[in-house]
């Protein structure tokens, strides 16, 4: 069972109190985007074996959205952070790199 700490209210909640929201940090297609760009936005997602950044909602608690970094193989939770962040915090990325030497993910700008 996953237990994630909501960064908004600080409560450690198990997955029955949360609602998954898919991959975090997905570039949204604007209203004037091409059909191809909109299709990519809807259907193209990373599905890595390993560390993954996801969106979660504390549905049975404060109701806030947040992001979590976890391993899809071992279910290890590396940390959570607020949903208004455009990239994972550097401290979280360092924690992941320390646990998974050689790990890399997309570049955040």
UniProtKB/TrEMBL annotation:
Its EC number is 1.5.3.1. The keyword Cell inner membrane does not apply. Pfam families: SoxD. Keywords: Oxidoreductase. It is an enzyme of class 1 (oxidoreductase). One of its GO terms (molecular function) is sarcosine oxidase activity. One of its GO terms (biological process) is tetrahydrofolate metabolic process. This is Sarcosine oxidase delta subunit protein.
